[in-house]
Amino acid sequence: MDKLIIEGGVPLKGTITVSGSKNAALPILTACLLAKGPVRLTNVPRLRDINTTLKLLNILGCETTFEGDTVTAEVKGLKAEAPYDLVKTMRASVLCLGPLLGLLGEAKVALPGGCAIGARPVDLHLKALERMGARFMLDSGYITGICGSLIGARIMFDFPTVGGTENLLMAASVAKGCTILENCAREPEVVDLANFLNAMGARIRGAGSSVIEVEGVRELKGCEYRVMPDRIEAGTYLVAGAITDGELRLLDCPVDDLDALITKLREMNVSVEAQTDGSVLVRRNGPLLGVDVTTQPHPGFPTDMQAQLMALMCVAEGSGSIQEKIFENRFMHVSELARMGARITLKDRTAMVRGVDRLVGAPVMASDLRASASLVLAGLAAQGVTEVARIYHLDRGYERMEEKLSAVGARIRREKE
Q1: Is the pTM of this model over 0.70?
Q2: Could you list the residue range(s) of the whole structural domain that residue 185 is in?
Q3: Is residue 142 domain-shared with residue 173, that is, in the same domain?
Q4: 5 is in an annotated binding site
């Protein structure tokens, strides 16, 4: 198991290229199960979750290769079972339910694992697929689903679930008739999946809004597609520039998808400006100021940026609050930030943050993917040496983070624990 050693206090200066989006690539890779013919995907990040998904696709009968940032995939003989050994590490594996039911009329998928940040039940997926004619059983840790064929239906989600919206988009694309999805997730990654499905011949309208209409087609064909850049990785590096009082230029930064974060950064006295060459420049305008934040479904403030912004608030003047409304157990990084001198008080699902003059390096342990990023950011700003353990979480969502940070001046290295 690896750890990161960070000697903080160095302003970061230089250019970072944002990688392809993990949260867009995972459902897009899963949607390759629907294609008759080869699919070629570019701008795919090299991450643990991507490798896990490729292994899963291979087991399900979709042959894949991964060279550079390009994945090629082609179904050779679809199989219906997603085994526990792979699914246990990654919640996104449940996304294969929709494609398998849509094409085979059956699916057996192990209950998924992933970050321990609170309940993310798959019941919203199952209830929606039942409206389309599927029936499910839970036995020995597996979800087994069967249907004659999926039939279009009008479906209202109880909550704008990202995974549920994505699963239903894939299922409805090959179902009989028209499906109308209401109270959909509006995240850019959902739009990217819809655009990919349309490139394969699907008929999807309204992605990015709360109501999506899908007219089922008999088959989808292979295509070539570029995965969108990762808005959460981009947001993390925007915070890295601000927390170190540096000046970073981000290439391939999806600035239009970061409105809520950029608004809060500007309130904190951080300049985030698009440049004429298409890059985005981040630097401080003056002393950092505390802000109040509430996480919300898109287009609200993303829960995946909550931990990173908290690290920045720890070194801001005054106080601020973060209210977490998406996941009930996403403050596990608070105790680790406190080890570095942060002043944070928790009450229910709200964190009150009072800024300190500086953080102090310490051994800390990552509890989930975004918590890992927050601890790295805190270490970049801290006085002394910070050791971040259990960074396998970080490797699930950030491509070569220590290399990208080293290239802009960070004193950071990877070591074996």
Answers
A1: yes
A2: 22-226
A3: yes
A4: no
